[in-house]
User: What shape does this take?
Amino acid sequence: MTVTFNHVMTIKAQILKLIVTALLIVSFFGGPLQAQTSEEELLEQLRLAPEVEAKRLERELSLIWDRSGSAAMDLLLKRGREALEEEDNTRAIEHLSALTDHAPEFAEGWHARATAFFRAGLYGPALDDLERALALNPNNYNAIFGLGVMLREFGDLPLAAEAFDRALALNPNHEAAKAAKEQLVGEGIGQTL
Assistant: This one.
C-alpha cells in the first residue's frame, strides 16, 4: 500500500478536527473556569469565618502551602509526614532534610522538618527550621503555634503568649492555640488589666 502526501494530510486534518471538537465540548459542558482563591483572600476569609467554615478554609490554605511546584518534592513532604504519623522521627528527618536541601524556598518543608526535630528532642534545629519556615511564610499560623509551643517549653511564657496571640490573629479558630493561650492566661500570663 502506498501512502501519499494527500492521504497523510487528510488523516492529520481529521485528527485536528477531533481535537478541536473535544476542546469545544469540554469548554461548553465544563462551564466557566473558576479562578482560584489566593492565599491572601483565604487568610482574610479565615480571620472572619465561623468555626464550621474555618476548617474548609484551613484545608484550602494547606493545599496551597503544601505545593512545592515539584511532584518529587511533594512526594518527599508526603513521605516525611507519613513517617511523622508513624512516629519514626529519624526517617521523617531524612525525608524532610532531602526536601529542604532540594527545595530551600519551600516553607512547608522547613515547617515539617521543625516538627520532626522537635519530636526527636532536637530543639535547636527545630527552632532554626521554624525561623526559616516563618521567614518564607510569615502567615503560617501552624508554624507560629509551633514556635509558641517551643517558647513555652523553654519557659519563656510571655513570648509564648505572643506567639499564640499571633496565630489566633491569623486564625481565630485555631483550637490548639486557643487552648494554649487559655492555659497561659490561667497561669497569669498574657492577661490584660
